[in-house]
Fold:
Amino acid sequence: MALIQQPRLELPENVVVGRLDALANWCRKNSLWPMPFATACCGIELMATGASKHDLARFGAEVFRFSPRQCDLMIVAGRVVMKMLPVLQRIWQQMHEPKWCISMGACASTGGVFDTYAVVQGIDRFIPVDMYVPGCPPRPEQLIQAIIDLQDKIQREGTISGREFDTAGRQLRKRALVEHAGVLSTDASRNPVLQRELAAAAESAVPRT
Amino acid sequence: MPFTPPPVDDVLARLCGRFGSLESSVFRGQTRVIVPAEASFDVLSFLKETGFDLLVDVTCVDYLEYRGARHRYGLVYLLASTATSQRLTVRVFVDDPRPAVRSVVPLWGAANWLEREVWDLFGIRFEGHPDLRRLVMPEEFTAHPLRKDYPLQGRGERHNFPVITRDHS
Structure:
């Protein structure tokens, strides 16, 4: 409303006014780099989605990378057994923010027909999931629909500064856990290492006068 | 025309001459012989010298609550001769509380992972195995899940993982 009451700006042709956050989200949603965590027949449909007939490139998500460091969309395609779950979690933690996760097919979402001692009954019990794709296996169209829906979700949330990720704070917590395995507390009052790190971070954050 | 392996009557005769009478049966042209657990290594060693140079498979069956079964576990050794195409199944029965047989890794290197798999899933101990670790289940797993008294949905192992949320990933 404030914009309307202001005097109209004279904009040259081909100039659009928008929020920087929206611009960042627009960039993110149209260049998703999937991490294909394909463990079963859903992986075949995932390959078909990326191949010429269904052509995932039309939605800006065709660059599959097998390194989690280069990806921002994990597609878990297929059943995940209990021996694989720690691997899945580690790969998820190695991906950089912002990142999203699609649980593709009945097995990844619920365990499917494999209600046995070895199969995890839905990956969303152990890692965060943004989109679920039903089907056994889902057709490529369904996966594409999930990616389109995920793009809508990405457009609605997220900031250009990434402040919602609180990256520095999380890194402090993670580093304290890894480097000082003996001091496993994330409670700063009981953890001298974390106290030092937090104090150093606070000091560097204050502008020097 | 299905392949029918050549008969192994001569081998059975020599086996019984060496180890006393052994129970054997034929089903659709395939012979199996039942061997006591304490003699299994010697019998298999003898069979290897006789010409059964290929160990096709080592696996196991749990006969818990099986109709007419006299033993709990039945080991299966599938042997073949690459020279004569003869095939022979050797059955060895073992029981709780400490099911164990001698490892055949000294005879066939192929038995290494096969016996590890049987140990992993059935808990049969192979004495003399150079590296008896679990093969398919995770190292921290404690049960032997193909035993019939192990519940199909496990004892909660599949739920025993840390939960990663958006806040700490």
Remarks:
- The longest strand of chain B covers residues 54-62.
- Strands of chain B lie at 24-27, 30-35, 54-62, 73-80, 87-94, 100-102, 125-127.
- The first helix of chain B runs from residue 9 to 19.
